[in-house]
Amino acid sequence: MFFSKSSKKIDRSERILPEHVGIIMDGNGRWAKKRGMPRQAGHRVGAENFRKITRYCNSIGIKYLTVYAFSTENWKRPKEEVDALMSLFYDYLVEALRDFREENIRTRFIGDVTAFAPELQRLIKETEELSADKTGMCLNIAMNYGGRDELVRAVQMIAKDVTDGKLSAEDVTAELISSQLYTAGQPDPDLIIRPSGEYRTSNFLLWQSAYSEYVFMDDILWPDFTTENLEEALDEYAKRNRRFGGV
Ligand code: IPE
Ligand code: IPE
Ligand code: MG
User: Which residues have any ligand 2 atom within 6 Å of their CB?
Assistant: First the structure.
């Protein structure tokens, strides 16, 4: 992990929690490879872990959680792996629809879901509708999500309004752009966590992460990521001094 220089001990009962946490759920393939298993097996364990970590975040009072599940670039993977991921998403949503009745989590999907099979799209819609009136944590699942793709869409929508005479070029502001993103109306992520030892964003929340705190954890792969690893990232976040360009 990239630790802050401060070695101060954090009192978890008094710690400032991020309102919005992003997680790049990376390392499933390597986790499986290390065990001589097919990459798909890592995705399955990773999906189970996602459920555990999501519940935990809700239980400790995180207000927004955005998880990166499938990027616009992940279609490049072998068909076998993409198919396995699609069937996992399908299974997850069937289970989620069953479990959601008891859980106070509102689920939304960010990304271009129209690329998915009609049956998966139907489940996505149903999941969003069924959980829409929940009052607990808001969970954004990023599927077929890419930060650049999201910005291209936003620019296209704005350009259309300018062409139609509804807007002038001077009306284009940072707030207007934010309002055209999948995350419109939500706060920007305060903390973004990436396990697995890769120190990059891989196209996750490009616009929204302008002032996010990153915690890269290099000694853990997503399927092994525990609630204690999450707590460590939250401790690290609490030590950071956020200035947003000020002093
Ligand atoms: C993340 O794990 C899950 C997805 C991208 C769908 P990876 O599949 O990227 O696992 P590694 O990085 O190859 O280990
Ligand atoms: C980012 O991980 C996407 C998800 C975790 C869903 P990747 O494994 O696709 O990213 P790269 O290829 O290492 O940058
Ligand atoms: Mg990866």
Answer: 24-26, 68-71, 74, 198, 200, 202
CB 36 within 8 A of CB 72: no
- pLDDT tens track, the chain, 247 positions: 666 767 778 999 999 999 999 999 999 999 999 999 999 999 999 999 999 999 999 999 999 999 999 999 999 999 999 999 999 999 999 998 887 778 999 999 999 999 999 999 999 999 999 999 999 999 999 999 999 999 999 999 999 999 999 999 999 999 999 999 999 999 999 999 999 999 999 999 999 999 999 999 999 999 999 999 999 999 999 999 999 999 9
**What is the rounded distance in angstroms from the CA atom of residue 127 to the CA atom of residue 106?**
9
Name the closest-CA residue to atom 6, ligand 1. 70
C-alpha–C-alpha distance, residues 185 and 114, integer Å: 22
CA Rg value for the chain: 19
d(CA 20, CA 189): 5
Residues with CB under 6 A from ligand 1: 25-30, 70, 74, 85, 196
Could you say which ligand is closest to the alpha carbon of residue 82? Answer: 1
CA of 101 to the centre of ligand 2 (A): 31
Instruction: Please identify, by atom number, the ligand 1 atom nearest to the C-alpha of residue 31.
Output: 14
